[in-house]
Amino acid sequence: MQRFFEESAGGIVYRKRWGEISILLLERPKTHGGSEYVLPKGHIEPNETAKDAAIREIREETGLDPRDLRIVKFLTKVSYQFVATYQEGTPLIDKDVYLFLVRYTGSRDPSPAPPVKQGEGFLGFRWVTLRELSSFGVKPDDVHTLVEKNLRYM
User: Fold this and answer.
1) Contact criterion met (CB below 8 Å) for 35 and 125
2) What is the mean pLDDT of each run of 10 residues along the chain (154 residues)?
3) How buried is 40 (Cβ within 10 angstroms: 0-12 exposed, 13-18 middle, 19+ buried)?
4) CA–CA gap between residue 68 and residue 46 (Å, rounded)
5) Of 27, 21, 61, residue with least CA distance to 41
6) DSSP string of 21-53?
7) Which CATH number is associated with domain 3-153?
8) N or C, where is the chain less crowded by C-beta within 10 Å?
């Protein structure tokens, strides 16, 4: 079995409105039907820092203006493995994801790009309150814990 290493970066994007904090989640189709909620993130390009990649990927996946996005702090590096059944030869992928806490100060709603082909892209977005976050089963699984631990920075 082939094995590859990938690095991605993204963020827990939040906004404050009327004294309430909301977290941005993107809805994407699951491989075997249904959908799931995820954080905006994507591959780090050659010669790009994780911080720059996080802002670029958030912009690409949400359509939010990068001038309205401010990295507050680095949160964590999440490492995991998965079998890429969608790739030829179904290789094993070792992946590191660098997550940042990112404040959104704009007023526009996200406009995720429509799927280019079946199973890719996003179906939509949702701003969820801190109370709602734990019930969404967001990937990575510990997003709610990360938010709770970093409330003082928000």
Assistant:
1) no
2) 92 94 90 84 95 96 95 95 79 92 95 62 88 79 86 94
3) buried
4) 25
5) 61
6) EEEEEEEEE-TTSSEEEE--EEEPPTT--HHHH
7) 3.90.79.10
8) N
